[in-house]
Amino acid sequence: MDKSEFAALIRLPRQWLDLDLYPDEFFQAQLQLFLEDGGSAQDDTGDGIPGAEHYRNGVYWYWIKRPDECDRALIERLIALDPCELLSRHLLKQLRGA
């Protein structure tokens, strides 16, 4: 499975890939964890794989913890695109309070 396929499976907004903000090494680590946990590429609900929000959350925190390596306003805009409104609101609150 390549990065684009996995990003779609976890419902990571495409902009993260377009802007090269889903680092290869982080993707590889997430994919390895997914496979070790017996991950399946099936998404019968359209809501992503079980636990998809945890994988997306990991990508977001990767950048939140590296404020000197990214454009904070851009990261906020990208987090706001998350398909889970509850997750995006929580992260934006955390980010703006950091």
Question: Your description of this structure?
Answer:
The chain is mostly helical. 60% of the residues lie in helices and 0% in strands. The protein has six helices and no strands. It has helices spanning 3-9, 14-18, 24-36, 52-64, 72-79, 85-97. It is globular. The N and C termini lie far apart (35 Å). The model has no long low-confidence stretch (mean pLDDT 89).
Could you give a short description of this structure?
The chain is mainly alpha-helical and 98 residues long. It is 60% helix and 0% strand.
Structural descriptors:
6 helices, single chain, 0% strand, 98 residues, mainly alpha
Largest sheet: none
Q: Given the helix and strand composition, which structural class is it?
A: mainly alpha
**Spans of at least 5 consecutive residues with low confidence:** none
Strand-residue proportion: under 5%
Summarize the amount of helix as a percent range: 55-70%
Envelope shape: globular
N→C terminal distance:
35 Å
- Count of discrete alpha- or pi-helical segments spanning 4 or more residues: 6
Radius of gyration: 13 Å
Residue-averaged pLDDT, rounded? Answer: 89
Q: Using DSSP, what is the number of strands?
A: 0
Q: Please trace the helix and strand order, writing H or E for each element.
A: HHHHHH
Describe the SSE topology.
Layout: H1 3-9, H2 14-18, H3 24-36, H4 52-64, H5 72-79, H6 85-97
